[in-house]
Specification:
Structural class: alpha+beta
Shape: globular
CATH superfamily: Nucleoside diphosphate kinase-like domain
Helix content: 25-40%
Radius of gyration: 13 Å
Strand content: 15-25%
CATH architecture: 2-Layer Sandwich
Order of helices and strands: EHHEHHEHHE
Number of strands: 4
Distance between the termini: 11 Å
Strand order of the largest sheet: 2-3-1-4
CATH topology: Alpha-Beta Plaits
């Protein structure tokens, strides 16, 4: 049994998609074990996305993720990291598979609904 961190981004929160996203995750067998609607502080955003510092999109990413509330959550299930990454889909919604969260609901690379950890 694995646990992993997921974060519904401001674009999805503003579009009232929290319930839809959680439903899709639960339908794939993952269980929501913790969640919190929160405003991400600048320091946390910079730490969380530190691997992207220096990249052209970094400042826009930090501005976006701190611009409005997110829904941070932990899900649990068998092979939770891989299952959640599959449900989420490719970073670019136009390249994401139909049926994936980003493929069905994402608008652009910068407004792609959800962050999924690639580790436990």
């Amino acid at each position: 049994m694995e646990r992993t961190f997921l974060m519904i981004k401001p674009d999805a929160v503003q579009r009232n998609l929290i319930g839809e996203v959680i439903s899709r995750i639960e339908r794939k067998g993952l269980k929501l074990v913790g969640g919190k609607l929160m405003q991400v502080p600048m320091e946390l955003a910079e730490t969380h996305y530190g691997e992207h510092q220096g990249k052209p999109f970094y400042n826009d990413l930090i501005s976006f993720i701190t611009s409005a509330p997110v829904f941070a959550m932990v899900v649990e299930g068998e092979d939770a990291v891989n299952v959640s990454r599959h449900i989420i889909g490719s970073t670019n919604p136009s390249e994401a598979s139909p049926g994936s969260i980003r493929g069905d609901l994402g608008l652009t690379v910068g407004r792609n609904i959800i962050h999924g950890s690639d580790s436990l």
